[in-house]
Task: structure prediction
Amino acid sequence: MQLPILSVLIFLPLLGIIPLFFLSQKNDKVLKGYTLALSLVEFVLSLRLWFGFNDAATGMQFVERHNWLPQYGISYFVGIDGFSLLLIMLTTFLTPICVLATWEDVQFRVKEFMICLLFMMSGMIGVFVSLDVFLFYVFWELQLIPMYLLIGVWGNPARRVYAAVKFFLYTMFGSLLMLVAILVLYFYHAKTTGTYTFDLLKLYGLNVPFNMQFWMFLAFALAFAIKVPMFPFHTWLPDAHTEAPTVGSVILAAVLLKMGTYGFLRFNMPLFPEAAYYFVPLFSILAIIGIVYGALVSMVQKDLKRLIAFSSVSHLGFVMLGLFTYTMQGVQGGIIQMINHGLSTGALFLIVGCIYERRHTRMIADFGGLSTPMPIYATIFMIVALSSIGLPGLNGFVGEFLILLGAFKVNKLYAAIAATGVIFAACYMLWMFQRVMFGKVTNEKNMGLSDLSWREIAYFAPLLLFIVWIGVYPSTFLDKTKATTAQFISKMEKANKGTKLTLSHLFKGEAR
Amino acid sequence: MTIPVPSFSLSSIGPWLTLTIAAIIILLVDAFSPKGRKGIFPILALVALAVAAWQTYCLWGKVGVDFSRMVYLDNFAFYFYLIIILGTALTILLSPNYLEEFGKNLGEYYALVLFAAVGMLLMAASAHFIMIFLGLEIMSIAVYVLAGLFREDPRSNEAALKYLVLGAFASGFLLFGMVMLYGAGGGTLYLSELASKLSSYAELTRPLTLLGLALIIVGFGFKVASVPFHMWTPDVYEGAPTNVTAFMAVGVKAAAFAAFARVMFMVFPDFTVQWNMVLWVLAVATMTLGNVVAIAQTNIKRMLAYSSIAHAGYLMVALVAHNQLGAVSLLYYLLAYTIMNIGAFAVVILVGRKKDSYLNIYDYSGLGFQHPALAATMAIFMLALAGIPPTAGFVGKFYIFSAAVKAGYIWLAIIGVMNSLVSVYYYLRITVLMYMRPAEAELGPIPFTYGLTFAVALTAVATLAIGIFPGFFYDMAVNSVKIFPGLAG
Result:
């Protein structure tokens, strides 16, 4: 019998929590070491997915299905395709790094912190592998709780509770409307086919009338757009990012936000393809507003974390723009950009975490000339900043270029405006870098700062490796998503014709 | 002249008899035994409840009527038996030490709880309006006394008096509604006969029928604490002893919903269009008021009182849906609600300590790290009440809103989930206080006694267990609601 690898990945961290209860709170190094070991095991296990994954196959792989509540058509149904594979790898890859980053940072309630972290990991992987809508919803809500605790308990004392509650309520708001839409979809499926099921693949086959698609698309989109976050729903993000502890910000930016974009790819678009075409202008424009607005607001931030948070809004605008092009380049670029954002922004938050640990401030004005006392730090910071800007040869370029290419094929104006986002990114990133790193050391407290320790270098090294790898040879990663994307595009194309017909029909009717 | 005695079988009311006998024995033992034997009462009560549960188990699956068609024997009743017995048993687990603190660990408390439970069982199985009324009164009178158990405490007195006066008034409404239906139905109060007499549209829309129905809704609305008949709830819940509050919040509500649902599903199955609009409005008002006002509460018992109003609103959504799934969700939700709510009250008793001196929500500050296990269970109950997976509360809400969507009440479902969102705010505040605020004062030792600790642990585990594996109770509930042929698929 084959090892049920996905279940192992979901439940290993959960089971791993149990020994933590019996470890002493005092030996925080033991607790951290244990969690590090567990997350490394998890990463090694997830490599099985990477190497066992069949690039050419279009369907779901590593599928597991067990009855959960058969009376209700609910099953424990998991599997992955190209879309989820990369995100799972990102999750398992970043968790050990996060544990390493907590080594000195977290001293308060270490045991509970590690429990939250492992709980989180289960939830995240669960979200990415669920193919049963009910199961997905359970995981989707489940990972809220540990994140809420991470922000609220270990966050910045001043406003952490506000940020945590805001995060929870915002996400909950969207997902509850999604729950109603899920139910409507479920009963519609039962009405048309006679079978009650939450099986996503079966729901894909449904031909939902356009007016239902319209509302259900909006309900799902609200849940995911809040998570992404897209432009008008982004206000929880800067607060959550700024108040969260370093590792919380890393996970939030790198993985949690991707749940939103992943949700669009996995649920919104394939379930309601006609509506997905219908809403292209709306969502593309919101994405572009996000790109430009996020970048402009980043420029005026005084707090490093807030700056990076707003840059996330901008970067995820790119992802959304790419996905809504429904072109091979756009969608693949969108996916690779999700990974890029996870790596670069994750690394940026870690970088801010490093100086926050040393100086206990994140204000740009408190720094200046850090490259003199911290040369290694300056180098790493420079590479990551450039990758976030999208310098050719580093990962950011690949994603943004593909997205702009896709957008250009669909609408030249969109591509042109979105491209300004890259320029603005260079402005805010480099300007921030200049103010923090270059010039003379103006603040005396910054004189004696120690450079990165070996531990810190150890967790930046793998990040840098992939930043360069994706930049130089993205095919390794693009190949994994190619088949799935092609299938996705062809599916969307089919729906497109239908919509165009009805739309032109409408216009003709008006003309008459 | 001989009066023929209709044949009956005592076994069909076995659980009632067991609990009644046990209550009488407790009273006798209390009267005749010297002081210092108090420990025996809770054990006697629990044993009686266990026997009643076993009798219910033996009855499970039986279908029919007994005692001159006065009592229904069906799984719908038996499911409620189990919920009520479970709720009563958990209440008794909470009681001994708490009552001891107030010097009120008396035999009559246990006897009254058992009597109230008998009344609840009666309501769940009534086949006749007079039986419903009898059950309601047996239950209510016992609970009036229980609410005033701490007779030196003015708040407890206030609670009892308020509950008594308003409750009597509501009973009057119910009785008056029955009178109207007696007239409308041509001289019968059997539920099944009323159903056939009132089956035509013309009969149903006669003013007499409508008035009777309206008055009955008022009567039940009072007992389940639905808006606008909820005014008594916060004061009574706050003033009554905490264990009695727990009992009222789950037992009384379950019993009232049992009778309410049976009347609605049986007598008025074809009446969907008319009474559903009324119930729709009541459900929305109940949910919204309960949740919004709960936000402003700083006393944990008051907060839970308003939350119980809100939960009555969710349960009414299940009635509005008026389909089989709705009935199933009603049963499942009441079970889940019983478990998680009693759990929450058990934590309130533990944290309240010494004569309830810590009932403010800010007394929970810092609990998370001083008493991690206790706080974790409270967090589970709060998340369950808020309806967050993977708890029983989530599955219950999921069923209820499914039923609403299935019946086409999509707006009701949307209002319902938005209400859940509002409720998340105040339930979450407890976790915020427990985990994210430093303790304001040293909490001091918490009296973990066997009964209470066991109740908390059991309810916490059960909340998670039936949330993750709801299949068994779902099937049971499906099995139970088959007796209502009038319900749509």
Summary: The interface with chain A takes residues 368-369, 372, 383, 388-390, 394, 398, 401-402, 405-406, 410, 413-414, 417-418, 420-421, 424-425, 428, 432, 435-437, 470-471, 474-475, 478 of chain B (CB under 8 Å). Chain B has one domain: 14-483.
